[in-house]
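So, is this right?
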Amino acid sequence: MLPDPFKQSLAIVADTYNPILLLISLFICVQIWKQGYPLYIIRLAGAAFAVYSIMFMDLWLGIWQYAGLDYSTHTATSLAMIIFISQNKSIKIKIALGVSLLIYGAIMKFLNYHTWGDMITTGMVIALMVNLVDKIIVKFLPSRYRNELSPRS
């Protein structure tokens, strides 16, 4: 059995991972705003919408519970922000972000926050939803604003 301070340290890492990703995401929004794309933050809001709409749907319908699982808001939030952060980044940065997410998942499993099943099923649904919501935002935003979303649009 590992000492309690070790678990406490891992819990601190797990509890600070999403806030750090949020700060990075907001920093990116500010940087892109300064480049002349003030509406880029709508994409981050879309990712948050995907995470919490699925969470509320699960609370209402008990989808994960029906399967003997638990919707992992931790996983959903971190994956949504990693998808957001990785836009227009090099493959090395995308790999580093993916590895950080796997380490985060391993910590959550070790601390019994969630099972791998919770995290994988949540991740599959959230990856689809975040990308779908992003495509909807880009497609249905009035054309005069699309150029303000980001350099990649």
In short: The first helix runs from residue 4 to 34. The two ends are 51 Å apart (CA to CA). The mean pLDDT is 91. The chain is about 80% helix and 0% strand.
